[in-house]
Each structure stands twice: as C-alpha cells, then as structure tokens.
C-alpha cells in the first residue's frame, strides 16, 4: 500500500479577523429576534420589544455610536418581517 504524499510546503493561513462590535451586536440581535418570536408579532408588540432590546444592546455595546444603534434597529426590524409570499404568475391561455 502506498503512503499518502505529504505536502511539506504548507502555507499558513492568516488568522480570521475577529468580528467587530457592530457585527457582534447585529448577530446577537438576530438571535434574540429568532428566540423571542418577534417575527409575525403585532406592530405595537414589536415596537415595544425593539425599544426594550435596543436599550439592552446600547448598554451592552457602549462602543457603538448612535448611528450604528439606529442601523441595528433598522436591520432588526427588517429581519423581523415575515417572509414575503411569492406571487403566483398566471399565464393567459
């Protein structure tokens, strides 16, 4: 049986970049949205939930500025929207 060929010319891979605080906050927000059942909730309930959750994220990620907090909320509100139904195309025969 032949031995597998070993490549001694391994090139080291650069280390993966650590996520930024914004990316961490975004991912955490998305996880909270999925776990808390925000998708499909009434608009008033979503608004109250986002108000409370954004307060939590503001305290948890103080390094983010006001613009980044607003971007997070916008991304979260879009993420919490139910999927759009595909429109059926009917062909006239």
Structural class category: mainly alpha
Quaternary structure annotation: single chain
Mean pLDDT: 85
Radius of gyration, CA atoms, in whole angstroms: 22 Å
Shape: elongated
H-E string: HHH
Could you walk me through the main structural features you see in this protein, from its secondary elements to its overall organization?
The protein is an all-alpha fold. The protein has a domain at 21-33 and 42-79. It contains 3 helices and no strands. α1 (21-36) runs parallel beside α3 and α2 (43-60) runs antiparallel to α3 (66-79). The radius of gyration is 22 Å and the shape is elongated. The model has no long low-confidence stretch (mean pLDDT 85).
Task: Please tag this protein with its features.
52% helix; mainly alpha; 3 helices
What would you say about this model in short?
The chain is 52% helix and 0% strand. It has three helices and no strands.
List the helices and strands and how they pair.
Blueprint: H1 21-36, H2 43-60, H3 66-79
Helix pairs in contact: 1-3, 2-3
